[in-house]
Amino acid sequence: MAQIRPFFCIRPCREKAARIAALPYDVYSRAEAKQVTAQNPDSFLNIDRPETQFADDADMYDDKVYQKAREMLWKQVEDNTFLKEEKRCYYIYELTMDKRTQTGIVACASIDDYENQVIKKHENTRQEKEADRIRHVDTCNAQTGPIFLAYRADQGIRTVVQEAKKQEPLYDFVAEDGVRHRVFRIFADEQIREIQQAFAKMESIYIADGHHRAASAVKVGQMRKKAHPGCTGEEEFCFFLSVLFPDDELMIMDYNRVVKDLGGLSPAQFLEKAGSIFDLKKVSRNERRPKKKGDFSMYLDGSWYMCSVRAEDLSADPVKSLDVSLLQDLLLEPVLGIHDPKTDQRIDFIGGIRGLDELERRVETDCAVAFAMYPTDISELFAVADAGLLMPPKSTWFEPKLRSGLFIHALDE
Question: How far is CA 350 from CA 314, 321, 356, 361, 381, in A?
Fold first, then answer.
């Protein structure tokens, strides 16, 4: 059963919340992060990416970089830029993008639930990516970026959320990308109890996005448990900051592929190969977006083609049945020789938020062929995680992105 508990939140003062809220640290290159922080000195990216406070040639993994993050964070707590709540609460985090709203519960999840696979993952993590966040969390003594979790929708939680959203929001602003962010506090003891009990009845919760942040937070908790052999498991470092969304409100966008060459084949030869594997039909630009599972479109030599997987190639296996797996197993590996898409420099991945025009642009500049995918469904993600399996890389693209800096969880009280 899942232990999802309220916490003593550290959060920005109302006047600065909109300027503090920042996209996740890992969506920026170092140069992009430096540019953002130069333009907005209030951005939480200053703390999430503290190397922005140093010269461009400074070692971004030097101890003094992480110490700078700690110094900036706690200085802003002292000067009341950030406020410390005096009661454990849940928060409601509502995001509206393109007239579609999703509403999450901000809370702390148990590292024991992660280790015992009550909280389930669907992708592997890389140690080098974990190492940076481990040091950031440990040095700051706080988790600054929430993990994006998903659960099967629960009417009891929804009722509490609807009631709590009748009050005035703590924050209500539209970010530079047009996404509206509203935050409410769940303060009443009865409502807190109802939410905690509803989550306690759930057998599984799923990491939707933020696998590296989750793994890093858990490892810091494990380190501190070892350093405190008498701990009870209720200490703050035994929990990690999360936002939990019901599955029926989430949107997964397509995660598309571009390949830089055709493996020695001409466009005509490659088209013939593809036609021997899939049911192939030339389509107009207006018809280029796939409309159902098992279909993906291909942009080659100035034209779009709809590729449909044949019935005999479909699979009941939760991983092999994914569209991204079918493309990889039927075409990218056997025809183009892309054996490991995680490491092969010939393939690149384009998030659906960038649109299909970006695929055309890439083919017209530095790539030979592009593939537009039908989005992975949240039920497919759940099925893979429930089976204890892992998705191929770049299978899901969630929008909108959660902002960092609106909620901070200190590792001690």
Answer: 25, 21, 9, 12, 19
CA–chain centroid gap for 257, Å, is 19
Would you give the DSSP letter of residue 345? T
Whether 413 has a pLDDT exceeding 70, the answer reads: no
**Number of H helices and number of E strands within the chain?**
13, 21
> Which residue bears the tokens 């858990």?
218
Q: At what angle do helices 127-140 and 211-227 cross, to 10 degrees?
A: 60
Q: Alpha-carbon Rg of the chain, whole angstroms? A: 23
How far, in Å, CA of 131 to CA of 58, rounded?
18
Strands 9-12 and 171-174: unpaired
Distances in Å between the Cα of 203 and the Cα atoms of 117, 249, 251, 386, 404 are 10, 20, 23, 11, 28
Cα–Cα distance measured from residue 401 to residue 409, given in angstroms and rounded to the nearest whole number:
19
Give 241's contacts (C-beta < 8 A, 6+ positions apart).
7, 106, 108, 143, 144, 145, 146, 147, 217, 407, 408, 409
Q: What are the tens digits of pLDDT across the range 214-258?
A: 999 999 999 999 999 889 999 999 999 999 999 999 999 999 999
Task: Quickly list DSSP for 388-403.
Answer: T--PPTT--EESSPPP
Which backbone phi and psi does 7 adopt, to 5 degrees?
Answer: -150, 165
Alpha-carbon distance of 377 to 78, in angstroms, equals 44
User: Quick check: 251 and 351 in contact, CB under 8 A?
Assistant: no
For the chain, the residue count is 413
- Taking alpha carbons only, the member of 308, 407, 413, 404 closest to residue 25 is 404
Distance CA 219, CA 199 (A): 23
Structure tokens at 335: 């025809």
- Look at phi and psi of residue 388 and say left if phi exceeds 0, alpha if psi is from -120 to 50, else beta: left
Name which of 23, 26, 215, 52 is nearest 131 in CA terms.
215
Give the β-pairing of 4-5 and 100-110: antiparallel
Mean pLDDT in residue range 41-62:
95
User: What are the start-end ranges of the E strands in 337-399?
Assistant: 347-351, 369-372, 397-398
Residue with tokens 């109302």: 14
Query: What are 57-101's pLDDT values in tens digits?
Result: 999 999 999 999 999 999 999 999 999 999 999 999 999 999 999
Could you identify the residue written with the tokens 């469904």? 377
